[in-house]
User: Which sequence fits this backbone?
């Protein structure tokens, strides 16, 4: 059996967009440096598997994230004008200059909901992060690029503990209101549980940010990512970030492990009869191929269940 029986739940959305982050969130945290041509092939395979959006890399400081220091070179090997959007992370104007020079027209900024993580991840205070992102967004929009905003540490922070919901809503709204088309709610260290997810989505709704503006970005540190995705579906969320094979983590957040595996999400959506457009078997083959390049097996339960055992 390589697909679940389909039993739709009429209370859930009928279609979902999967925003694939494996090439960025996945590879930014790997110990081994992946050659640029392998990254380009990975992205090509993800596109071929039907992923509609594939985040490609980050134009961050190469010393901060050496694994993605080849961002410009990688982008030059990709088709930026194909049917699949290939967004890139940009923290500041220097990053935007590099991204625009490379021809990118889908930009993602990434803010923090907490003071400590703003300092650790962006070398900025929480307040100053907005001043850093404002010119990035306005210049990107003026250059006809679209902008997505991430907000991290939405459920818990390794240094500050639980993060109050109003604090997350205030930070997220401020980033979104700069002109982003979507806000991705990050459970950077994977501590969220289902009712907390529902409460945060409701709080955004009460603040005027509806589910059409939100995406959910779960890491699976405590095995809650799929349950949290289901809780989000019940609230009407239709965009989910996920990472092929469950790759991922944040080098500046201890205890951040892999993202929700795209295969695990696809299995659940398929069973629920929710359209997603992804070919599961080619995705599994891609994650197995990438696992071989990384020298370790995929943590995804679905990849392990469906993959060809290594001989
Ligand atoms: P900084 O050291 O404070 O930078 O880093 P600065 O502005 O003081 O500049 C220092 C030097 O760096 C200057 O060069 C700049 O030109 C250069 P100099 O004049 O000394 O020769 N520089 C750059 N060079 C290339 N590209 C750039 C760049 N910026 C400055 N973009 C900075 C501040 C924000 C750059 C740094 O902290 C940084 O790169 N942080 C990124 C960290 C990161 O990528 N983290 C992982 C992504 S976030 C994540 O994974 C969470 C997410 O998945 C959601 C979730 O799970 O919650 C999105
Ligand atoms: Mg992440």
Assistant:
């Amino acid at each position: 059996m390589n697909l679940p029986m389909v039993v739709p739940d009429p209370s859930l959305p009928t279609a979902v967009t999967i925003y694939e982050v494996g090439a960025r969130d996945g590879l930014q945290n790997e110990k081994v440096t992946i050659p640029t041509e392998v990254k380009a092939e990975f992205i090509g395979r993800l596109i071929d598997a039907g992923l509609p959006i594939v985040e490609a890399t980050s134009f961050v400081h190469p010393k901060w994230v050496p694994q993605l220091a080849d961002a410009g070179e990688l982008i030059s090997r990709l088709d930026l004008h194909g049917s699949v959007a290939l967004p890139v992370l940009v923290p500041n104007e220097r990053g935007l200059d590099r991204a625009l020079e490379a021809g990118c027209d889908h930009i993602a900024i990434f803010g923090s909901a907490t003071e400590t993580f703003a300092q650790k991840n962006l070398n900025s205070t929480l307040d100053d992060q907005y001043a850093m992102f404002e010119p990035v967004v306005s210049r990107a929009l003026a250059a006809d690029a679209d902008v997505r905003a991430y907000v991290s540490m939405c459920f818990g922070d390794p240094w500050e503990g639980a993060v109050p919901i109003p604090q997350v809503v205030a930070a997220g709204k401020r980033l979104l209101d700069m002109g982003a088309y979507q806000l991705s709610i990050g459970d950077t260290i994977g501590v969220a549980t289902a009712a907390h997810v529902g409460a945060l989505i409701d709080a955004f709704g009460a603040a005027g940010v509806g589910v059409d503006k939100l995406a959910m970005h779960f890491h699976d540190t405590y095995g809650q990512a799929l349950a949290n995705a289901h809780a989000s579906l019940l609230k009407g969320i239709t965009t989910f970030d996920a990472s092929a094979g469950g790759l991922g983590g944040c080098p500046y957040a201890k205890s951040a492990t892999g993202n929700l595996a795209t295969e695990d999400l696809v299995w659940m959506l398929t069973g629920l009869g929710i359209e997603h457009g992804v070919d599961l078997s080619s995705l599994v083959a891609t994650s197995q191929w990438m696992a071989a390049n990384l020298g370790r097996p995929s943590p995804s339960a679905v990849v392990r269940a469906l993959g060809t055992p290594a001989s």
Remarks:
- The first strand starts at residue 17 and ends at 20.
- The pocket of magnesium ion (ligand 2) is lined by residues 25, 186, 188, 217, 219, 250, 259 (CB under 6 Å).
- Residues 17-306 form a domain with the TIM Barrel fold (CATH 3.20.20.70).
